[in-house]
Each structure stands twice: as structure tokens, then as C-alpha cells.
Amino acid sequence: MSATDKARNKVDNLAGKAKEAVGNMTGDPRTRDEGRGRQAKANFKDAGEKIKDAFKK
């Protein structure tokens, strides 16, 4: 996995956590759910990169 992809996934994950926290603090379920979705997307991408790396070896 390239360092750029790994960093981008980490940033997306952290942004999702921040958005989820804002949603929890404000009581906005839509914002909270968007944050959770962004985290899931980042985790899915990270898993895909790890699978690609495994097949390269």
C-alpha cells in the first residue's frame, strides 16, 4: 500500500470520527451517521489496500 493511500485513509477516518463527535454533541443523527459512514468507507479502503499488498507478494 502506498504511503499516500494509507495517509489519505487515516485522514478520512479521523474526519469521520470528528464528524461523528459533532453529531453526538449537537444531537444531529444525520451528521453522526455521516461520520460513521465516512469511517466505514475509510476502513473498507484500507482493507482493500491490504488485500492488494498481500497479492503483490
UniProtKB/TrEMBL annotation:
Biased composition (Basic and acidic residues): 1-11, 29-57
Ranges where the CsbD-like domain occurs: 5-57
Ranges for region Disordered: 1-57
Family matches, as InterPro entries: CsbD (IPR008462), YjbJ_sf (IPR036629)
Family the entry assigns: Belongs to the UPF0337 (CsbD) family.
Annotated protein name in UniProt: CsbD family protein
Organism: Mycolicibacterium novocastrense
